[in-house]
Inverse folding.
């Protein structure tokens, strides 16, 4: 009889241990981080602090998934030289389970992203993009992935908005409709045994809450530290949506699987305040040292206060934007110059007397934009201005900075009707007259929606290799040494006077 009692004690003990394990395994934690492109900015891109957070959470919780939301391959000063390889190298050391793709991953175009995915020791996922050259997924990228940890299988999807094609002038890929792609990939993952489906995205789609309520996906992860206030206000506050809309923040979110996926706890961490993980810190220091040797060269001095804050360069006349446009016009001897505000990425305020370094310009102008000169009619130029002003309220990068012209606008008018008048040397722009226009190769090829430029005559001197805009600006500063920037009313928004 005693033997039978002992037998059932063993059986019941095993049962309760097993049941306890099942309860524990029904909980899982997701660490999310994104938008960390500039390793010189320890506030917004503290990878050593992120390494500490990942280590701490994995040591204290079970079933931990580390999901990196991209937005980091570029643009940055160092990525100008290696197209983001250092970011992948650092991430390989921190060991994310997966990385999603945002539009910034295309800062150096499609093939460079494929190379970065090849270098990654983790899957890089883009679920609704395919290479039109081979009618298949972009090389080395995955359409989804399934991650298994201690009995829980997490399926991962990452979705792009179709506008990435125009914003980054991608010529070799196509974006499939997001909802169709989500449903297709989610079905595949369910069939493979996914207990949880996490969908990553960087554009505030309106259909996310419905997809969660229909159990097509279980958890959504929105990563976009540059969302405008207008866009952010539209995001549904569903508890199963993890939102990273501030730089330098990571989220630690725990869920329970119990007839659905239920939020247990959510905590947002300022990773800049965490102690640095030494091995990651050493790795970053090595990259910084190499970059310092290249870019810590003094080239001039600012003689005025000004700012390149994101909202300023994308919504109003900006003195640094004026300086760049003037430099482009002076070099090309064109009638007009046009630059998009999205080319300026420093997001910094400068003081009079502050020294200018090569790093300053590499940080402000990290894209490899070349100077192009085209011939356009006055009417086409006005059409282009209307396009660049059409989303000013959303703080989009198309916003124009000009030279050689004075433009009066009213942003309170409907898109397509915002240009009031344009003058050159005090005379009205003539609609059917041809003008020479210096701009970037990105805009000349139709980027930011400027299709009106696609078929314009290219009059860039064939005997000259088109210079980088950043090189032109750097040389202009070296030549002048002291740079005083100013606003001169070349772009006036009358909506501000109402």
């Amino acid at each position: 009889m005693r033997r039978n009692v002992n037998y059932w004690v063993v059986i019941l003990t095993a049962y309760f241990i097993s049941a306890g394990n099942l309860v524990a395994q029904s909980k899982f934690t997701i660490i999310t981080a994104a938008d960390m492109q500039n390793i010189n900015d320890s506030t917004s891109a503290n990878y050593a602090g992120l390494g500490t957070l990942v280590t701490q959470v994995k040591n204290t919780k079970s079933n931990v998934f580390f999901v990196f939301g991209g937005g980091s391959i570029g643009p940055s000063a160092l990525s100008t030289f290696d197209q983001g390889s250092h970011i992948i190298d650092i991430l390989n050391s921190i060991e994310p389970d997966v990385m999603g793709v945002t539009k910034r991953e295309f800062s150096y175009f499609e093939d460079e992203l494929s190379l970065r995915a090849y270098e990654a020791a983790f899957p890089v996922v883009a679920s609704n993009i395919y290479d039109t050259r081979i009618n298949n997924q972009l090389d080395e990228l995955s359409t989804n992935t399934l991650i298994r940890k201690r009995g829980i299988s997490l399926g991962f999807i990452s979705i792009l908005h179709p506008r990435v094609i125009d914003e980054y002038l991608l010529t070799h890929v196509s974006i499939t409709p997001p909802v169709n792609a989500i449903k297709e990939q989610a079905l595949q993952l369910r069939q493979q045994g996914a207990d949880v489906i996490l969908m990553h995205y960087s554009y505030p789609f309106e259909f996310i809450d419905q997809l969660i309520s229909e159990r097509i996906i279980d958890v959504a992860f929105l990563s976009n530290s540059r969302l405008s206030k207008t866009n952010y206000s539209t995001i549904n506050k569903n508890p199963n949506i993890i939102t990273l809309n501030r730089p330098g923040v990571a989220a630690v979110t725990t869920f329970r699987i119990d007839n659905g996926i239920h939020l247990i706890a959510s905590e947002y961490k300022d990773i800049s305040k965490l102690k640095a993980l030494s091995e990651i810190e050493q790795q970053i220091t090595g990259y910084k040292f190499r970059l310092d040797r290249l870019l810590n060269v003094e080239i001039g001095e600012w003689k005025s206060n000004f700012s390149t804050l994101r909202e300023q360069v994308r919504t109003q006349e900006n003195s640094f934007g004026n300086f760049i446009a003037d430099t482009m016009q002076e070099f090309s001897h064109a009638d007009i110059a046009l630059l998009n505000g999205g080319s300026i990425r420093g997001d910094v305020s400068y003081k009079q007397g502050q020294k200018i370094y090569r790093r300053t310009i590499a940080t402000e102008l990290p894209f490899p934009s070349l100077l192009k000169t085209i011939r356009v009619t006055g009417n086409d130029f006005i059409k282009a201005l209307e396009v660049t002003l059409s989303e000013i309220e959303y703080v989009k990068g198309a916003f124009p900075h000009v030279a050689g012209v004075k433009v009066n606008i009213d942003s309170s008018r409907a898109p397509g009707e915002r240009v009031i008048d344009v003058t050159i040397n005090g005379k009205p722009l003539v609609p059917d007259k041809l003008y020479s226009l210096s701009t970037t190769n990105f805009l000349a090829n139709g980027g930011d929606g400027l299709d009106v430029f696609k078929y314009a005559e290219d009059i860039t001197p064939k005997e000259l290799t088109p210079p980088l805009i950043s090189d032109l600006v750097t040389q202009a500063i070296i030549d002048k040494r002291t740079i005083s920037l100013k606003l001169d009313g070349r772009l006036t928004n009358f909506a501000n006077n109402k």
Q: What stands out?
A: The chain has two domains: 24-288, 299-497. The chain has 16 helices and 27 strands.
